[in-house]
Design brief:
- The strands form two sheets. The protein has a two-stranded antiparallel sheet. It has a two-stranded antiparallel sheet with strand order 3-4.
- The relative contact order is 0.11.
- The N and C termini lie far apart (about 40 Å).
- The protein has eight helices and four strands.
- It has two domains: about 70 residues, no CATH class; about 80 residues, Winged helix-like DNA-binding domain superfamily/Winged helix DNA-binding domain (Arc Repressor Mutant, subunit A, Orthogonal Bundle), CATH 1.10.10.10.
- It is α+β, with helices and mostly antiparallel strands.
Length: about 160
């Protein structure tokens, strides 16, 4: 089966599933987990992350779920570049600044402890290569909408927040 066939198969399976419901009015602390469990075949596991993040006055909503069997099938070492890009305090500061609305390199370089403009570009290139950022036009960067919730998920999980 080709990679495209596999993606199409997985997309069709996701589209066949009923949507996850909104939080119930009861105070069920595990409403998302309980809803996920209802949608899983017997004996299967899955990971789900979702979020709503306000950006420039609009909400970026994103949800992603994947069976644990899919996670176990990939070579985890191939994911190292994405995590390595997050392993620098300067890069995390740049991402935080960009998430808060600062997108211009000259403004980013003015941030305390970031370094020279050349150093900023070095870090931005690494974040772009890892998929955490994209250039919108010369000297301006943003976090792609489909990477915001995954980024925040990594931060919450890594910081044990």
């Amino acid at each position: 089966m080709s990679r495209l066939d596999d993606i199409e198969r997985r997309l069709a399976a996701l589209e066949e599933q009923p949507p996850l419901s909104a939080p119930p009015s009861s105070e069920d602390a595990f409403w998302a987990l309980n809803t996920l469990a209802k949608h899983l075949p017997e004996g299967e596991g899955a990971v789900l992350f979702t979020g709503i993040i306000p950006v420039n006055g609009q909400a970026v909503s994103w949800q992603y779920g994947v069976p644990t069997s899919e996670v176990n099938r990939v070579n985890w070492s191939e994911l190292a570049p994405a995590f390595a890009a997050l392993g620098s305090p300067v890069r995390l500061t740049l991402l935080q600044q960009i998430a808060s609305g600062v997108q211009d390199v000259s403004e980013l370089a003015a941030t305390e402890g970031i370094g020279t403009t050349g150093q900023v570009y070095h870090h931005l290139r690494a974040l772009v290569a890892a998929g955490w950022l994209r250039a919108t036009n010369r000297g301006h960067y943003e976090i792609p909408g489909n990477r915001l919730v995954p980024l925040y998920t990594c931060l919450v999980a890594g910081g044990d927040l």
